[in-house]
Amino acid sequence: MDKLDRFIKLAKAGEGTYGVVYKAKNKLTGKNVALKRIKLEKFYNKEECSEGVPATAIREITLLKGLRHSSIVELLDVMQSTDKLYLVFEYLDLDLKRYLDNTKRQIEKELVRSYMKQLVEALAYMHSHRILHRDLKPQNLLVDKEGHIKLADFGLSRSFSLPTRTYTHEVVTMWYRAPELLLGEKLYCTGIDIWSLGCIMAEMLMKKAIFPGDSEIDQLYKIFKIMGTPNEEIWEGISQFPDFKPSFPMWVPANLKEIVNFHNQEEEDFLKYMLVYDPSKRKTAKELLKTNYLKCAKLTGPEMEAFPLDENEESE
């Protein structure tokens, strides 16, 4: 039996830059999987590919083969046909964005805490292996009915060395992009993932993005209006960044309690550890794990109303 013949496509689950993701069933085990199909022909003779395979797919496969963590989506298999590449992942019911959109009530405080612990543990593991995710956002976090949350989509991830080298700053979807990237800094490290995680936590509490900019400058101003306009006093070296302007409007920090629906002070303090301007002063994932907020976390089941019925939909 051809390896691909082991799987029955049940439904289209999503679409990314380089391919379509299907919910599929393994005929041999009866288990559901996520099947990411990448067409190869359109990538031939392009610089960002190797023999027709997009660089993002090569990067994702290489990194995931070396990562084993309960809060990182597992790559089960890689299959190639003449003009397509298939990545087989463990299947989770939906992504965090869809969960937040489909849940009518505010997310329960213990679920937020549980999700944050799992995500911080995954980042601590990745960062200890010198890997940056670089594209953390609710669409790239998968959740299931038991309360697990997992990092997915490692197409923009990369290994980093210390001291940090110059990387492209065109990473991380705009709303979750750290201020140092928006200001043109090319030397960055694990702090960019921590800032993104802070934005994600705020979105869990608010049920909407905290900094929804529509351009790089608008994104900066959205951050400044809430966090205050940064200066050398709070962020040493900021005036040396390529895109820093002394003419930036001066905003004073807003009261976060009036913007984010915190359940308690501990939750607010934890968010503030991540949304710190100076990346050298942001807590690392390892430091975040030592906080009382995460020490009290336990696996918590989500609201079931947000999950699709488990039925065999027709293949698209």
Automatic annotation (TrEMBL):
Catalytic activity: L-threonyl-[protein] + ATP = O-phospho-L-threonyl-[protein] + ADP + H(+); L-seryl-[protein] + ATP = O-phospho-L-seryl-[protein] + ADP + H(+)
EC number: 2.7.11.22
Enzyme class: transferase
Biological processes per GO annotation: G1/S transition of mitotic cell cycle; positive regulation of cell cycle process; positive regulation of meiotic cell cycle; regulation of G2/M transition of mitotic cell cycle; regulation of gene expression; signal transduction
GO (cellular component) term, any one: cyclin-dependent protein kinase holoenzyme complex
Keywords, alphabetical: ATP-binding, Kinase, Nucleotide-binding, Serine/threonine-protein kinase, Transferase
Pfam short name (any one): Pkinase
Segments forming domain Protein kinase: 7-294
Top-level division of the source organism's lineage: Eukaryota
MF annotations from Gene Ontology: ATP binding; cyclin binding; cyclin-dependent protein serine/threonine kinase activity
Family: Belongs to the protein kinase superfamily. CMGC Ser/Thr protein kinase family. CDC2/CDKX subfamily.
Protein known as: cyclin-dependent kinase
Species in which this protein is naturally found: Rhamnusium bicolor
